[in-house]
Amino acid sequence: xxxxxxxxxxxxxxxxxxxxxxxxxxxxxxxxxxxxxxxxxxxxxxxxxxxxxxxxxxxxxxxxxxxxxxxxxxxxxxxxxxxxxxxxxxxxxxxxxxxxxxxxxxxxxxxxxxxxxxxxxxxxxxxxxxxxxxxxxxxxxxxxxxxxxxxxxxxxxxxxxxxxxxxxxxxxxxxxxxxxxxxxxxxxxxxxxxxxxxxxxxxxxxxxxxxxxxxxxxxxxxxxxxxxxxxxxxxxxxxxxxxxxxxxxxxxxxxxxxxxxxxxxxxxxxxxxxxxxxxxxxxxxxxxxxxxxxxxxxxxxxxxxxxxxxxxxxxxxxxxxxxxxxxx
Length: 328
Description:
By secondary structure, the protein is an all-alpha fold. It folds into two domains: about 1-70; about 85-325, Orthogonal Bundle (MetI-like fold). It contains 13 helices and no strands. The chain has helices at about 1-35, 40-70, 85-95, 95-125, 130-140, 145-155, 170-180, 195-220, 220-230, 235-265, 265-270, 280-290, 295-325. Helix 2 (about 40-70) packs across helix 13 and helix 3 (about 85-95) packs across helix 13 (about 295-325). The longest helix is centred in the N-terminal third of the chain and has 34 residues, at about 1-35. The radius of gyration is 25 Å and the shape is globular.
């Protein structure tokens, strides 16, 4: 075991040092080759050769895995025999997949809406106070924590003990002491568990929205807001008619980024409930099919479904970026 660990460490170090060296060697070789070529031919082939390593990496680590996953989705569990559309029939008829899709929709609505709202509020209000750095740092701090660590923290905070026993979970301790009501099994009760999980996701990712919106706010011309205030506009009118239109492209980018994160939500659900109590999501279904049921075909079909669901979000993001570039 120790020898295996050393070998892996050595391989990681070799890849970390060897990859940039190989890239620099390739570029040096390209420039040496281009120098001896005619000027017109060199101008045409230089961009191709410079982009070739990136194209190869994208093909090996992105395009081929996606293609192979699509092929596996038409095969049986061990990936040898063709099964036609049976794996996709499983997606269409499985109550487990349908429940996971409903939960993903909830993640999509609450995570995107919650993070966007919190990001806008904190970025806008923080921009107007002297303790901006401290206020934003409190919201941004959870971004530095991994989703697994954050899920472990909140699992303890949502801990439940039966009525009459001391509540070791922070949320139930506060709930019972302030409302004098019975403790709530936040992660077990189907009325609260999905919302509780999404709120953990909001806590973990709202800081990212704050950082992006804060940077965008710094780019709003101060002349526009000052002129509006001189004309008698209130703070709300300045925000509604001046700042918000300027932030529209940024809001679209943040919303699409959060939408993709919501569609592939996995870590928080896996650590806190493992999909039990009607909290399953698509990424967790894929994990269960691949590593527990060891059904490569169904797992690949779920992966294709996840890709199809994320594709429209990415297309909208790309279209909005093109419009923003055209309007500049």
